Amino acid sequence: MGESITITDNRTGESIEIPIVDGGIDAGAWSSLLPGIWFDDPSFSATSGASSSITYLDGGAGLLRYRGYPIEQLAGTAGFMEVAYLVVFGELPTRDQLDAWCDEIAEAAPIHENFHKRILEGFRDDAHAMGVLIAGIAAMSTFWPDGKDVEDTTCRRTQMVRLIAKMPTLAASAYRRSVGTPYVQPDHGLDYTGNFLSMMFGQREGGYEVDPVLRDALDLLFVLHADHEQNCSTTAARIVGSSHADPYVTLASAAAALYGPRHGGANEAVVRMLEGISSYDQVDDFITGVKAGDHKLMGFGHRVYKNYDPRARILKDVAHKVFAVTGTNPLLDMALKLEEVALADDYFISRSLYPNVDFYSGLIYQSMGFPIEMFTVLFAIGRTPGWLAHWDELMAQGSRIARPRQVYTGHAQRDVPSIDQR
Ligand code: CMC
Questions:
Q1: What is the CA(201)–ligand 1 centre distance, in A?
Q2: 292 three-state secondary structure
Q3: Mean pLDDT for the chain overall
Q4: Å from CA of 303 to ligand 1 middle
Q5: How many angstroms does the Cα of residue 16 sit away from the middle of ligand 1?
Q6: Choosing from 246, 302, 309, 392, which is the catalytic residue?
Q7: How far is CA 142 from CA 38, 105, 249, in A?
Q8: Please, what is the Cα angle at 193 between 241 and 170, to 5 degrees?
Q9: Angle of CA points 128, 131, 134, to nearest 5°
Q10: 126 with 179: CB under 8 angstroms?
Q11: Is 112 tagged catalytic?
Q12: Which helix (H) or strand (E) holds 196?
């Protein structure tokens, strides 16, 4: 046997030797020695929920790779459609493959008129765009019931194309409904990200000029969000997908997990936090409040990164390029000062708390003209290939349904008293 660990049950003196394979140990072997005794790890801090070949993340070293390629190289050379192809299919596309992929995605981008009329227009005008997106993705399940054949590889591919293609259309429609302007249909002549900007900010009659700097910056933001291994939303997708639910409701569950302010909702929370601090002079007081446990420093900290998030480093550069076109976001100085104060403070140093991807992304989105409620929606568009790649990988692995155990802490058996005796 190669590397292994030995576990001894001190009650009986029995031992079991378990091999260490790819950095993990098989919990099944543990169960054979200790039936009925479970690892107690509700947040999965020390538990692997998947064997995956999609994304490599070393949080201590601050490394992130999609299918082996460092994020820094992809961010400089590959567009979002190439990265989506890479994440989903495992290899970068050739030029012909990329052209065919972009065509396939563009053809699947429109959303049925009934979807706009019957689903999207049913929401209140002030409905949060993430609520609309989550419900909209789930509603797609009723429009494409053919997606339920989840064990069929060809069927899965069709649904993955649909979801990647329709996510920006749905997102832009959610926005246009909220501001009461007519929906803009996808323009096949534009690239994925340019088309999304046109559906967001263009006119029905056309003529929208996509700013190449803003398009490239948004495309890069999508690349940076494309996958992040077993985060909360991907884990939600894997758990729901393991029941063989269709990919639409599976992705709706992932988007729901993303909505929370500890996860993708942090980009919105960061900007609300910066707006709440209101003046540069209050930064020190705000940090004192964080240290006293009054509030969190949103956009800081990560379960896995105990070093600078490599995506945040790239985003800082993107921010400057975008601000050169849009003018500086007035909240940037506040964010830089917060970062400077936090990175020099023992509270943050001792807990290895660094800026994460959400610290600067919201400022960029805001400068590009996206309303704050759209920030997490943008994250969802970028993350869609990652969610789908994990779902497809799970289906191909033929895994069992996710069904964790629990450590029961409730009453022992007791008798039901009559209502007068309670
Ligand atoms: N501000 C202040 N203190 C913090 C923060 C923060 N942002 N994050 C963690 N801590 C403290 C935490 O209170 C704990 O202190 P102590 O040891 O004294 O109890 C210590 O650092 C360890 O934190 P933890 O709660 O064990 O960390 P976690 O791995 O459970 O949570 C997190 C990770 C991302 C939910 C958390 O850091 C957080 O809430 N950050 C703010 C929200 C945020 O920016 N989320 C985006 C994450 S990156 C993008 C994504 O995945 O969506």
A1: 35
A2: coil
A3: 94
A4: 7
A5: 36
A6: 302
A7: 39, 21, 10
A8: 50
A9: 150
A10: no
A11: no
A12: helix 192-201
Q: Check whether 106 has a pLDDT greater than 80.
A: yes
**What is the token pair recorded at 138?**
């789930």
Ligand 1 atom index nearest CA of 301? 37
CA gap 55, 220 in Å, rounded = 17
Q: Report yes or no: 369 and 201 within 8 Å, Cβ to Cβ.
A: yes
- Specify whether 244 is catalytic: no
**Measured from the CA of 356, which atom of ligand 1 is nearest?**
48
Half-sphere exposure of 190 (CA within 13 A, CB side): 23
CB 64 within 8 A of CB 70: yes
pLDDT at 187 over 80: yes
Ligand 1 binding pocket mutation candidate from 338, 351, 357 (most atoms within 8 A of CB): 351
Structure-derived torsion over alpha carbons of residues 345, 312, 58, 70, reported in degrees to the nearest 10 = -150
Cα gap 180→125, rounded to integer Å:
8
Closest CA to 384 of 144, 188, 134, 211: 134
According to DSSP, the β-strands at 4-8 and 15-21 are: antiparallel
Q: Is 302 a catalytic residue?
A: yes
Average pLDDT over residues 174-181: 90
Q: CB under 6 Å to ligand 1: residues?
A: 231, 262-264, 266, 290, 296-303, 351, 353, 356-358
Alpha-carbon span 262 to 60, nearest angstrom: 20
pLDDT, tens digit, 9 for 90 and up, residues 46-86:
999 999 999 999 999 999 999 999 999 999 899 999 999 99
pLDDT value at 35 more than 90: no
| pLDDT tens figures, 360-378 | 999 999 999 999 999 999 9
Say if pTM beats, i.e. exceeds, 0.85: yes
> How large is the average pLDDT for residues 222-250?
98
What's the farthest any 2 CA atoms get from each other in the chain?
78
> In whole angstroms, how far apart are CA 266 and each of 92, 301, 349, 356?
30, 11, 21, 10
Catalogue all structural domains in the chain, each as residue range(s) with its CATH number. Answer: 4-58 (no CATH), 67-402 (1.10.580.10)
pLDDT at 1: 63
Percent pLDDT > 70 in the chain is 100
Q: Return the closest-CA partner of residue 62 out of 233, 232, 304, 229.
A: 304
Handedness of CA 37, 42, 48, 49 (dihedral sign): positive
Check whether 138 has a pLDDT greater than 90: yes
